[in-house]
Amino acid sequence: MIEIIPDIGINHNGDMKIARRLIWEAKQAGCRVAKFQLYDVDKLFPDKRIIAQEKNWYNEVKRTQISYEQTKDLASYCDNLNIEFLASAFDIERLGWLEGIGVKRHKVATRAN
Question: Model confidence over 59-89: pLDDT tens digits?
Fold first, then answer.
């Protein structure tokens, strides 16, 4: 079986209304899973530099960081829509969040340098 999993990732721009709308759209498109990314941008980039296209994207990426409370809210919203919540955890703390929420499976986070 082929499963298409939309990677909502950081496309919500830090706005939880947009995040919930993207989950809803995924459900309407027939997807059974909605995937996010959970990270602490300061742990990943302690020098506060995320350089791409000759620009430092640190502030933009920092804005998309999801808190524990937001993670629980998004997982609950997914449950209400009967769509699986999935997230890449970039550190042990966030992996613990997902375990506490009771996710069915994990996506191993990758980081390209």
Answer: 999 999 999 999 999 999 999 999 999 999 9
Q: Residue 113: which residues within 8 A CB-CB, separation 6 or more?
A: none
Residues 6+ apart with CB under 8 A from 100: none
Query: How buried is residue 10: exposed, middle or buried, by Cβ count under 10 Å (0-12/13-18/19+)?
Result: middle
What's the angle, vertex CA 87, arms to CA 99 and CA 81, rounded to 5?
A: 90
CB half-sphere exposure, 35, CA atoms < 13 A: 13
Q: DSSP string spanning 46-108?
A: TT---EETTEE-HHHHHHTPPPHHHHHHHHHHHHHHT-EEEEEE-SHHHHHHHHHHT-S--EE
Inform me whether the pLDDT recorded for 111 exceeds 80: no
Q: What is the pTM of this model?
A: 0.90
